[in-house]
Amino acid sequence: MLEMTRTGTYLKCSAIHVATGLEVSAIGPVTEPRALERVAVAKLKRALSAR
User: Are 39 and 26 in contact (CB under 8 A)?
Assistant: First the structure.
């Protein structure tokens, strides 16, 4: 599950693995939402593989 929150010119993308409840987030410019999604998903995959 992905969640986006905008604060001014910044966007926070949180990626949550529903089965484990593991959550990671990435923050970046509001002009690049797709890139931010890719970063958040990559961070989540790395965190899951480290478990």
Answer: yes
pLDDT digits (tens, 9 = 90+) for 21-43: 999 999 999 999 999 999 999 99
Per-residue burial over 8-39, b if 16 or more Cβ lie within 10 Å, else e, is: eeebebbbbeeeeeeebbbebeeeeeeebbeb
CB distance 24 to 38 below 8 Å: no
Kindly state the tokens that stand for 46: 């790395």
**pLDDT averaged over the chain?**
96
Length of the chain: 51
